[in-house]
Amino acid sequence: MLRHTAGPAYDELARLAERGPLRTRGPRPVVRDVGYYEPRPGAIEAFARIGAGDRLRAMAFRLELGRDHRWRCTAVELGGPRTRTAVDN
Questions:
Q1: What does pTM read for this prediction?
Q2: Could you tell me which of 59, 51, 53 has the C-alpha nearest to residue 30?
Q3: Is 57 in contact with 80 (CB distance < 8 Å)?
Q4: pLDDT by residue (tens digit) across 38-64?
Q5: Sheet with 84-86, edge to edge strand ranges
Q6: Using CA atoms, how far apart are residues 1 and 82, in angstroms rounded to an integer?
Q7: What is the pLDDT, as a whole number, of residue 28?
Q8: Topology of domain 2-20+29-86, CATH
Q9: Which SS3 state, helix, strand or coil, does residue 12 take?
Q10: Are the beta carbons of 32 and 49 closer than 8 angstroms?
Q11: DSSP 8-state class, residue 42
Q12: CA angle 33, 65, 15 (to 5 degrees)
């Protein structure tokens, strides 16, 4: 996904990839729900709720359509019971 990322979201995704915050030694993570909101044409804010055993985390992305008609991730946020990271656009 990094090659489809722009701005500060690139650094945030690289940091998340290194930390592996969704890795677990227990049950395998499962996407429990997804959704999106379109705040304006050419921008989508999407989310997923990810469960692993009794733990539930949330991951959100902001996708923007570029002049080249390619979607790029411009913000990412990962939330959970103890860790939360965000990148503002």
A1: 0.62
A2: 51
A3: yes
A4: 999 999 999 988 887 888 888 898 999
A5: 30-40, 43-52, 55-65, 71-79, 84-86
A6: 25
A7: 78
A8: Nuclear Transport Factor 2; Chain: A, (3.10.450)
A9: helix
A10: yes
A11: T
A12: 60
